[in-house]
Input
Amino acid sequence: MPVYLLLALAIGFEIIGTMGIQASQQFTRLGPSLLAIASYGVAFFLLGLTLKSMQVGVVYAIWSGTGIALIALAGYLVFGQRLDLPALAGIALIITGVLVIHLFSETGHH
Output
């Protein structure tokens, strides 16, 4: 499986896990709690597989940066959570950093 597909799946499971944490209401609801734990388990497993062909710093920067931006979007769409202008600017900077790694860094390519 291509490494970027593994990384995208890891990010997807991270998002599912984080949404499960929010829905679990501090782990007081069993279903969302189990979803969160299982999703994070799969996310970390897939993240580990990407490390066979990419550097840990690059993988983690892409995983966490993309995850932050997508979690913020999911929080808005699913839970109605809004961000102020400084928070949006910070997320835009994170996205910019991920794009710089993808588009310009030799380190980001396997």
Observations:
- Residues 3-104 form one domain.
- The two ends are 14 Å apart (CA to CA).
